[in-house]
Amino acid sequence: MISFKRISTYVFAGFVAQGAAAIAGLLLVRWIPAAEYALYTIAVTMIGTISTLTRSGPQLGLSGALSEAWPDQDRAARALASALQIRLMVSAIVMPLVLVATAWLLLKAGTDWPRLAMIIGILALIWLADLKGGLLDQVLFFAQRANRVQSLDSSISIGRLVLVVGAKAAGQLSVIVALLTNLYAVAARIPALTRWSREALARTRPAEPDPAMQRAMRKVALRQIPIDLLTVLQAQLAIFFLTDRGGLFELATYGALGRIAQLLTPFSALVMAYFVPAFAGQRDRIVPRLMLFISLSCAPAVGLALVAWQAPEYLLVFIGQQYADQAWPLFVCALTLIAMGVANTLWAVVAHRGWNRWAWLRLPIGGLWCFIGPMVLSLDSAASTYLFYCGFSVGTLVSALADLVAARRRGEYVALFRRSPEPTAAPNGG
């Protein structure tokens, strides 16, 4: 069973972490001119691209392996070592392409060559830091140490906020300094996560990769790469069309509203921290459990949409006077968060169970939307771009439902609604 006491503790720590991160982000929106913040938006988008392309597939493989191996510490350690090797393999394929795309977007947005080189260098360092620590938290989630991870993230977020305020006070705040604080937020997690994961696995040194696990994870990761490419293409197309059709202010608005959306991160983080481990052993009452997960993760976005509809000024005040007339884009952003939350929560819980054979459906559906969306939407404003981004949730939802049906046919769970009379495996989520 899921412990709501542990979830509430996790969410509270998450509010501290994301509250500090949101304040830092909102201060950057206020203190960096819109044209400069547009460059920061591009860079932060590419940080998400790097994380998605290099981590998603290996993380799926690791979650599937841990679902079978946990609580066997030796097998879990070998699963982690195998996932790290797979992530290196995937990174060698995608990182050069991502950095070239980043350079092209930054040049199109008007940056100069010295600043371009510094931004690319910082993004490479962020990838290197995330490569070291980006998979360790998944082991800690299965070891029921999610609260400890969130507490660490809280202290790091507060530290980053102090750095942002200090840079402003010293008159040194810039796009480069802002990105360096992002690097700090990733790198500062490594020592503690490394120590805690070794404690959870009862090891003092890393395990050797398991060839059989590597083969299985490689298959999952390679199958996931096209899906991840579509995922990051969504963000890249948004940036491209706004830069090309809308200009730097609309691009800055798109990024600024994302700072408000960041307030919901503690709830979306529940998916990986609690819902994925909790669903790992579920064999009955599948639909009620999924509806619970979706409701918990999306309720804050519904609240945000209500505020954006009735009193948008209370939210827009956070991002400054220059964005005070962006009530409609804010409301569209909130609706997008609801749609993406439903689809992504369902997909994450199902796919991290190892049920992602129909994930390829996102490719033709998403590809069709890439073709149709720019023809039916203007894509010259933040609002129309959020609507475009929202359209991709259809493919995610369809593929997750298809995998849920396919898993039923394979006999991987016994009941959609009723409780099975046979004993079920105890969930790992607490």
Describe this structure in words.
There is one protein chain. The protein is mostly helical and 430 residues long. It has one domain. The chain has 17 helices and no strands. The longest helix has 36 residues. The C terminus is likely disordered. It comes from Novosphingobium ginsenosidimutans.
Distance between the termini: 6 Å
Determine the number of helices (DSSP H or I, runs of at least 4 residues). Answer: 17
How helix-rich are the residues, as a percent range?
over 70%
| Helix-strand category | mainly alpha
Annotation, overall tally of beta strands: 0
Percent of residues in β-strands? under 5%
Number of domains: 1
List the helices and strands in order: HHHHHHHHHHHHHHHHH
Subcellular location: Cell membrane
GO cellular component, one term: plasma membrane
Membrane topology: Multi-pass membrane protein
Organism: Novosphingobium ginsenosidimutans
SSE topology:
Elements (H helix, E strand, L loop, with lengths): L3 H28 L2 H36 L3 H36 L4 H21 L2 H7 L3 H24 L5 H13 L2 H11 L10 H36 L1 H14 L3 H15 L6 H25 L2 H4 L10 H25 L10 H15 L5 H10 L1 H17 L21
